[in-house]
UniProtKB/TrEMBL annotation, chain A:
GO terms for molecular function: ATP binding; hydrolase activity. This is Biotin-dependent carboxyltransferase family protein. Keywords: ATP-binding, Hydrolase, Nucleotide-binding. It holds the Pfam family CT_A_B. It comes from the Bacteria. InterPro entries: CT_A_B, Cyclophilin-like_dom_sf, PxpC.
TrEMBL record, chain B:
The gene is pxpB. Residues 1-191 form the Carboxyltransferase domain. It is an enzyme of class 3 (hydrolase). The keyword ATP-binding applies. Its EC number is 3.5.2.9. The keyword Hydrolase applies. This is 5-oxoprolinase subunit PxpB. Keywords: ATP-binding, Hydrolase, Nucleotide-binding.
């Protein structure tokens, strides 16, 4: 076994390998997948000198612990959390040197949902259709981390960035999602369309990498039944028969039969990925660019 | 042709039939191949084609609204043969819907040439058309929590094969050992939009025929 590897000491509730995903295969039923908070994943890669497409780890609420077999540089970003090396606190959102055999502990998120861990050289599990991302809808890519698993690391490429700490947006206290209407807003009553963009919602605990589910006012339709299956985009706000909107995130299905009332701007999706259950949500109607 | 904007950089082009959707899909693939259309995803579906990742959706929208779509070129390429044991748990229900004897289901199903109208639901899951409309069947009232991989199934106007075990509401008429999806294979998907398909009875169903 090569020294360039990372042993998983504590996998956490759900920690997955993520990169920029596998767009371009939707016509085969393959979701795009990839890091939900893409700017955070790009930032931690930059901090350790990786290319932007290098694979990182995405944690969910309670972090993870890792033991590199050789000295590496790491950076933890996204959801703010306590980070330690062999029990000693080290900076968050900054490059940190971890000696061979030391334990990097990524603590529970102080706020937000998903922390990102970049390791110099990147995680180099076998790619599937050009991506190392775990796709929880289709099962493509590596399985979520388990205690005792070993992840191969690539060769470090460049000296890491010389910064003390990199600024990142704080996880949202209120999530404002800018939406453009349609393509199926005509399937809903005018009151439902008004309700959707004027009344408050909250992030449901049933949210995951597939979709951010909403608790809040039910949206009434003027047309019953299902659409013939049609293609779905990232950020689509699909309304299933229970009338509660679901914002599609990276592992969303490529086609669907429930009407899409609106589409969330891509720039709002990183904040959506960090919104904990219970976070107030407002959908703000904007014009298409 | 109804062109609906989807977010800032996608269009959903809606037509009135599956045949038109396939013709539109073929035309859009032709434009991409010749370099006149730049787009990240072209996703055909039952009555629509989604174009995702467009630089200038408005310009394409106005052009498509006025465009005439040429009829789809004749389907070329080899026919993929999928061996099937017609032993599914819903054979009797499907026979009842079709108004035929149970043994006839295999004969009718295997006697039809299909093609993949579109994919979705799971990597490598194709929605196959070819059966006449009188053989449409409803989904099961209660979906199964686990349909085994390789299940050959019917719902609405479509036939499909489950690439892996998953929940599902389609009527199961048979089983195949064909590998629908293998990410280490090139191409990973046995079936992609436009692929021609035939089901070939094997095992007990063949004994019934003979």
């Amino acid at each position: 076994m090569t020294d360039r590897a990372l042993a998983v000491v504590r996998a956490g509730a759900l920690t997955t390998v993520q990169d920029r995903g596998r767009p371009g295969h939707a016509h085969l039923g393959v979701p795009r997948s990839g890091a939900l908070d893409a700017p955070a994943a790009a930032l931690v890669n930059r901090l350790v000198g990786n290319r932007p497409e290098a694979a990182v780890l995405e944690t969910t609420l309670d972090g993870c612990a890792l033991r590199p077999r050789s000295a590496v540089t790491v950076a933890v970003g996204g959801a703010p959390c306590r980070v330690t090396v062999d029990g000693r606190p080290v900076p968050w959102a900054a490059p940190v040197d971890v000696p061979a055999g030391a334990v990097l502990d990524v603590g529970a998120a102080d706020s937000g949902v998903r922390s990102y861990v970049a390791v110099s050289g990147g995680i180099v599990v076998e790619p599937v259709l050009g991506s190392r991302s775990t796709d929880l809808l289709s099962g493509l890519g590596p399985p979520p981390l388990t205690d005792g698993a070993v992840l191969p690391l690539g060769r470090p490429r460049a000296p890491h960035a010389r910064v003390d700490v990199a600024p990142q947006p704080a996880p949202p206290a209120e999530l404002v999602l800018r939406v453009t209407p349609g393509p199926r807003d005509d399937w809903f009553t005018p009151e439902a369309v008004r309700t959707f963009t004027s009344r408050p919602y909250r992030v449901s605990p049933a949210s995951n990498r597939i979709g951010l589910r909403m608790d809040g006012p039910v949206l009434q339709r003027v047309r019953p039944g299902e659409l013939p299956s049609e293609g779905m985009v990232l950020g689509a706000v699909q309304v299933p028969p229970d009338g509660r909107p679901v914002v599609f995130l990276a592992d969303h299905p490529t086609t669907g039969g429930y009407p899409v009332i609106a589409v969330v701007r891509a720039a709002c999706l990183a904040a959506a990925a960090q919104a904990v259950p219970g976070t107030p949500v407002r959908f703000l109607a904007v014009r298409r660019r | 042709m109804n062109v609906l904007p989807v977010g800032d950089d996608a269009l959903l082009v809606e037509v009135s039939s599956g045949d038109e959707a396939e013709a539109l899909h073929a035309e859009l693939l032709r434009r991409r191949a010749e370099g006149s259309l730049t787009v990240r995803e072209i996703v055909p579906a039952a009555r629509t084609v989604l174009l995702d990742g467009l630089a200038d959706p408005d310009r394409l929208a106005s052009e498509l609204t006025a465009a005439e779509v040429p009829p789809a070129p004749p389907r070329a390429g080899d026919v993929v043969e999928i061996p099937v044991r017609y032993d599914g748990p819903d054979l009797a229900d499907v026979a009842a819907h079709w108004g035929v004897a149970q043994e006839e289901v295999a004969r009718i199903h295997a006697g039809t040439e299909y093609h993949v109208a579109f994919c979705g639901f799971a990597p490598g899951f194709g929605y196959l058309t070819g059966l006449p409309a009188r053989y449409d069947v409803p989904r099961r009232a209660t979906p199964r929590t686990a349909v085994p991989a390789g299940s050959v199934a019917l719902a609405g106007p479509y036939t499909g094969v489950y690439p892996r075990s998953s929940p599902g509401g389609w009527q199961l008429i048979g089983t195949t050992d064909a590998v629908l999806w293998d990410h280490t294979r090139v191409p990973a998907a046995l079936l992609s939009p436009g692929t021609r398909v035939r089901f070939v009875p094997v095992g007990p169903a063949r004994a019934v025929e003979a």
